[in-house]
């Protein structure tokens, strides 16, 4: 389920107004015997950046995947623009005004950067996804418009000079920018970002933060991210998960000052330290024993 699902009502049309609100309520997800999410609720308000944070294994990616329809919750309710969603196919995301970037970059290796971004523009191009994908636009005019939109998106991401290159020949941070251009070119009302800053250098992360803030007038954003400074800088609201449960929610300031959050992260750090100590003992044993 998720915005990928068909609305149970009749409205499938584009609505970029203030009703563009994603609401997930009482979400439970079980993978076999593992409870990945227990009674989690989260609302992405129109025009806001909502951060989703938590230590490793907290359930962030699972909730993100619920929001984009890749994981079907065991129970719970998802509404998008006031319409309850039921089971749907990922191909419907764009039509519903939702775009996402996943942890992996996910570009098509056999297509140029420009063609990759053109694929993302199909929501607005009359030529349609299949035509764009097969490079068979229904008309020269359609193709020209599609190209112009894609170039504009690449320019916004400062990646226009790579338009004719193939993704595999580009550094990882550039590939990430192209993936973001592909998501933005559809002009979504909701942008879902899963760890967009991973693998980025400090200055690139700063640029990413500015970019996220710059699109907020046009869309809302759900951001899963480990880099706390980025999250605290760009988010209006934050939900914190730990072991599949929501342990805090609020503004960056509220969340930062919440003892439950400190404890969850501290616990994680202490575990990591213990693991590291254990590892160094093992290593020491092997080397010197
Ligand atoms: N497909 C799956 N099958 C079984 N268990 C899964 C699956 N996906 C996730 N899990 C489990 O669900 C829990 C939540 O995982 P999830 O990846 O959502 O956490 P996360 O907060 O995104 O972690 P990280 O920050 O390490 O990416 C973990 O215990 C994980 O092992």
TrEMBL record:
SMART domains for this protein: AAA (SM00382)
Keywords attached to this entry: ATP-binding, Nucleotide-binding, Transport
Biological source species: Blastococcus saxobsidens
Pfam short name (any one): BCA_ABC_TP_C
A molecular-function term among this protein's GO annotations: ATP hydrolysis activity
One cellular component (GO) term of this entry: plasma membrane
Protein name: Branched-chain amino acid transport system ATP-binding protein
Gene3D superfamilies reported in the protein's UniProt record: P-loop containing nucleotide triphosphate hydrolases
Highest taxon, organism lineage: Bacteria
